[in-house]
Amino acid sequence: MVARLLDEDPEGAYGYSRVALRLASRVAAVREAAGFAAYANQKYGEALGEFRAAKRMTGNIDLWPVMADCERGLGRPEKALDMAGAPEVHKLDKAGQVEMRLVAAGARRDMGQLDAAIVTLQSPELAANSVQPWTARLRYAYADALLAAERQSEAREWFAKAVEADRDGSTDASDRLAELDGVEFVDAMAEDEDDEVQAPASSEASEHEDEDQDEDQDEGADQGDKD
């Protein structure tokens, strides 16, 4: 239930996670789910505690990147960078290593080190032509860092590459690209609503015109009778 609600109702997911913790706090999967629910609600200290508990129970290091990101959320980017250089990172699979790179780049940006963030994201995974589950997010982060460094033409190129890789709409790369190109989108639904609001006024005006015409015809008939 927690996993199902995380995207659509983070607060609801968090509520369910608290109930689950009371019932099965010694189950690693419950602690991990509670961690993600807290993380989704920006309760980073609580999330970090749950992730640490899950890691102790299983010995699994898959949560290492999100634990480091919790350190960022707590205002400790230096700690996140320490974790990015820890031996645990070498035990992560490719997806985990890319995620750790994203967190490390974010920590560099938190510290105002834009150039270092850009260099951190430069990797074989970024340069690869093949599209992997992490490709869109990696390209997006790189484009965003370039834009923050006022390297607009390069940023536009990488936002476009992020759009190509973003098959499930996991980023707003298309909106960012359109913004750079000066494209403005018109909300067709809003226009339809405006037309609907204006329509009754036009109808009312027509009704008044019809009433005036009827009155003129009646007056003309009365005058004819008098004659």
Automatic annotation (TrEMBL):
Residues 186-227 are annotated as: Disordered. Residues 186-197, 207-227 have a biased composition (Acidic residues). InterPro entries: TPR-like_helical_dom_sf. It comes from the Bacteria. This is Tetratricopeptide (TPR) repeat protein. It comes from Streptomyces collinus.
